[in-house]
């Protein structure tokens, strides 16, 4: 008996994949020239999409600088360039075509909890990104003359009763250890590159930053004194954080620079002003034990230490703050 033939569908070509965007062309090396206060620079920014990076890019552009971004995805425009900081993959030729590099890369500190794995990510994300940039600079025939590398006031640890300047020694704790390694990696940049460590404090910003969870809790009537309330929080307004970085591009400062507001404030002063601006009560108290139990090491490292940090170098260098008190900065955030 003859077998019944099964019809075979005609062959069809495999569906075409959409073409990938071509990689951005590496800009040609630029001629190095003396940098003055009014110089217009070509600036390469790592971490441009974060809270600080977004504000920084706006201010750099407004000041007439050309901004190029390092991204971890395929580039979407002529001013974007891919890199893989964990693997330390970066085209060193990029470093020959810019005047300055600003490194803001690093995993968020606001995530809860800080597990052992996440603490490793906090450290690795900062150190590996910095190493990738520094190694690329070392390979460049003409490295950029300016390197502004992210850092943090966590370097000082818990220091109640002290006034902390850039000359103050390192403190103790997880963040102090992270910052020491972070700055150590940045300090290996070529000797002809002026390197600045941006020791940033608690950034007060609308819609994000350190105030976001406090604002949410206060809106629900949970405005609270955190710990004993007398610990100093080294705050800075988002606008001034970015403006200070722009200022440092054409400054002669190098080494650690404290990016904090000029008038010290305690946590009690900050949380009470936030409650007053939101027209909400401020009657609760979060004891240190509750902060530690609820937030773990993140709360113990960020909310409970006292750090009366002053921006000694910035003020001596002539930087003018828009927000000189935490009250002014919080008023601007809430409004």
Q: Would you report the number of β strands?
A: 14
- Give the mean pLDDT: 93
What is the string of helix and strand elements?
A: EHEEEHEEHEEEHEEHEHEHHEHH
Secondary-structure-derived class: alpha/beta
Taking pLDDT < 50 over at least 5 consecutive residues as the criterion, the unreliable ranges are none
Strand content: 15-25%
For the largest sheet, list the strands in their spatial order.
Answer: 3-2-1-4-5-7-12
Please give the share of residues in helix.
25-40%
Q: Note the gap between the termini.
A: 88 Å
Approximate shape? globular
User: Given the structure, what is the number of helices?
Assistant: 10
Main sheet properties: 7 strands, parallel
Q: Supply Rg.
A: 24 Å
Account of the protein in words:
By secondary structure, the protein is an alpha/beta fold. Helices cover 33% and strands 18% of the residues. The chain contains ten helices and 14 strands. Helix 1 (51-62) packs across helix 5, helix 2 (116-139) runs parallel beside helix 3 (174-186) and helix 4 packs across helix 6. The longest helix has 24 residues, at 116-139. The model has no long low-confidence stretch (mean pLDDT 93).
